Amino acid sequence: MTLPETTDTTANPDSESTESDRSMTEFYQLQRNLFVMMLGLTIIIFVSVWLSYSFNTALNYLLGACAGLLYFRRLARDIEGLGVRRMSLGRGRLVIFVGVIIIATQLERVAILPVFLGFMTYKAAIIVYVVQTTLFPQRE
């Protein structure tokens, strides 16, 4: 008489590793998609502002957008290490935003509003990505 085999998922550490690898792959893919979306929006908005206003205003926007890209990269790095190294997110990202706003207030040639709106491009990219994936889901 043979005993029936039981499937114990806790005894198989490879299933946890595979699930973790798949999750990290999805995270990296999402990060890359958002980064490409931010770069695309930055280029489109930069050219639009240049044509509509002036080159100086467009450069102010670009300064803010570059700060937003740095902020996003730092945020992604903090999220990536969230489960591995620590249990909370770092606060160093705020320095990027505060620094670019201080630069905008101290220099005459730099306007605060285009810099701030440029910084917020990363949020616009997230909104566009969410709307795009909601309205046009990809089939696997």
Overview of the structural elements:
By secondary structure, the chain is mostly helical. The protein has one domain. The protein contains 5 helices and no strands. The radius of gyration is 21 Å and the shape is flat. About 4% of the residues have low confidence.
How many whole angstroms does the radius of gyration measure? 21 Å
Mean pLDDT: 82
Count of alpha and pi helical runs: 5
How many strand units? 0
Percentage of residues in helical conformation: over 70%
How large a portion of the residues is in β-strands, by DSSP E? Answer: under 5%
What is the first-to-last residue Cα distance? Answer: 44 Å
What sequence of helices (H) and strands (E) makes up the elements?
Answer: HHHHH
Reported for the largest beta sheet, the result is: none
In total, the number of domains comes to 1
**What structural category arises from helix and sheet content?**
mainly alpha
The shape is flat
Residue windows where pLDDT falls under 50 for at least 5 positions: 6-10
